[in-house]
Design goal:
Blueprint (H helix, E strand, L loop, with lengths): L23 E7 L4 E7 L5 E4 L4 E8 L2 E5 L2 E5 L4 E4 L5 E4 L5 E8 L24 H26 L8 H37 L4 H22 L6 H27 L4 H12 L1 H4 L6 H9 L2
Antiparallel strand pairs: 1-2, 2-9, 3-8, 4-7, 4-9, 5-6, 5-8
Bound molecules: fe (ii) ion (2 copies).
């Protein structure tokens, strides 16, 4: 538990709850009028459906939760707040990982309020439609247009551009009227939902690691192509490598590296020390860029 600057004040730092015991992790405050509880649930430890007379205010701090409220199951992620009036059936479970939530219950429930009523169970939900499959299908539908772009790129080198007029116009039409609208729809509908799940589960830098794996695979392929007699496809692989590296650096520099500026001073100093090898490894410091940043940052 965090320090208490004034009697009765409770501060719990993020990520501090790890009780490993029953579903109710820790009562922070209990008075005749309310109880404030920090809940930690796992797929094995849920609050089963019950119907207490108390009102419940729930705030999700970490992970993904499913709240049963009445006969509806509500999907909740960090930042979501729910209010369930007294006398309404409620339950809380964590489909995977770990869920941390702050629950304010008023008035404090009596022990018998947690008793499970016979017949109160989680309603069956079924799988429902899969939005990922809708996007995969759109991608498959766009692949013909992408294949034409690849074909056009191959033909374009060494061809008089004036001969390619209709094909170039068709390519532009495909980009403007099919590919870019698809991308915009993803930004409007898909990415905000992905972001909600990322906030709960982490993994925001997985796309960057994916690029690194792609670079490793292309490098291996290139080595294979070079060692084969004809070096078939080496030119195309080099092109792909250059494009992937450029795009990757752009993403790192425009989107990720600026976020490091929001770290506290200590974290930034520690990070720079690690990057340049620390006091013992300083001699191996590998480039002026990091050293310059360190000096500028002071
Ligand atoms: Fe897409
Ligand atoms: Fe990188």
């Amino acid at each position: 538990m965090g320090e208490a600057p004034t009697a009765g004040v409770v501060v719990v730092r993020a990520g501090e709850v790890r009780s490993g015991e029953g579903p109710v992790a820790r009562t922070l405050i209990e008075s005749p009028t309310l109880r404030v509880v920090l809940l930690e649930l796992t797929p094995e430890r849920e609050l089963p459906p019950h119907r207490p007379p108390s009102h419940l205010f729930l705030s999700i701090l970490d992970g993904i939760g499913e709240l049963l409220a009445g006969d509806a199951i509500l999907w909740l992620s960090p930042g979501d707040v729910a209010v369930v009036p007294g006398g309404t059936v409620r339950g809380l479970r964590c489909p995977e990982g770990r869920l941390v939530a702050l629950a304010v219950v008023t008035p404090p429930p009596a022990p018998e309020d947690h008793r499970q009523e016979p017949g109160l169970t989680w309603p069956e939900q079924g799988q429902g439609p899969d939005p990922a499959e809708v996007i995969r299908q759109e991608h498959r539908g766009l692949m013909d247009g992408v294949a034409s772009l690849v074909h056009l790129a191959r033909t374009a080198s060494g061809t008089d551009l004036s001969e390619l007029g209709p094909a170039l116009r068709a390519a532009t039409h495909f980009l403007e009227h099919e590919l870019l609208p698809h991308a915009r729809a993803e930004e409007r509908l898909i990415y905000p939902q992905v972001e909600r799940v990322l906030r709960a589960c982490g993994g925001a830098t997985a796309t960057m690691e994916y690029d690194h794996r792609r670079l490793e695979a292309l490098t291996t392929e290139l080595a294979g192509a070079i060692s084969s007699a004809g070096a078939d496809g080496a030119g195309e692989l080099l092109q792909q490598l250059a494009t992937t590296v450029q795009m990757h650096f752009d993403k790192e520099e425009e989107l990720y590296l600026p976020l490091l500026g929001r770290l506290g001073r200590d974290d930034r100093e520690e990070l720079v020390r690690s990057l340049v090898g620390g006091p013992s490894g300083a001699a191996e410091s590998s480039g002026p860029a990091v050293s310059d940043q360190k000096e500028d940052g002071r």
